[in-house]
Predict the structure of DUF4974 domain-containing protein.
Amino acid sequence: MNHSLSKHNLFTYLAGQANPLERQLVEEWLKNPDNAETFHGWLLEWEMRSLQFLPDQEAAFDKLTQRLDQVEAPEAVENPVSMRHSPVQLWGWKPFLVAATVLIVLGLALSPLRNRFLYQTYQTTAGQEQTIRLEDGTDVNLKPNSSLRVPRFGFQNDVRQVQLTGEGRFSVTHKPDHQRFVVKTSDQFQVEVLGTEFTVYARKQRTNVVLDRGKIRVDYKTATKEQQVMMKPGEMVMLSQQGTIQLRKLAPVKALTAQQEHLFLFRNTSLWEVCYLIGEHFGVNVEITDDSLAHRTISGNFRARTGNELLELLTATSRLRVDSTENTLLLKDN
């Protein structure tokens, strides 16, 4: 890394207070690709210190793209001295142009880089799970075959928003300023946290939300209007591919009397829900990566003292099999 430029020089430049020599020093330093990582770190620190500056990253990129589209290639000139001022014209005085200039110098295209620059994506494969701690302290257990997109430079606005595809279990940290936490699965469906612990399953055929603790609000759109559902602990919301929504209690995992202990009662219960309940009751991690299988329902009474006993009964009666990975059991069609 080339640290010939001081942090103070860059901060002065970003604040629009640099003199011509300081601007030239910064612009020359930014032309070196080796300085890109240092620049991004210092830029983030400057944004955190400058409380009056609340960057709208999406708007900045949109504005930048419009400006670049309007720029025409410069005509050849006889007097090369006049070109010395072009860096100043390019940079101007707006801080959001700084990052863009680095990309231009590196010769990178803005369109495919947009999401990679603004967001970080975590991805898991079949049989793999990942535990992620977000910058606000929220913990996410990302399930197999899932992805989570989060802002690369932290939650800057009045809402902490992430994008989930697949399945994830969230334990959300409450902020003193009551900053909202939202999990989006599509333009038609999102979960806003009013509590703390919940699981979201968002795949092609159906979206499920299970609330463990606290309170959450589910926002969804139909063909005609936007609607909301408030959830309480122990409830499950299911949104079908056709846009219909159902709110109900989770299936019972344990009977109330001693004579019926270890009896599990399932009535048109989805296999995804069964696996969720096995994890909650026995601590056995069972996953389903096949979307159609996850929403297959079963009915019956099953007596089992362990998670493995219950799985053996399910596989024997429902033509299923269980494959073992390092940390997860995968439920599949036999």
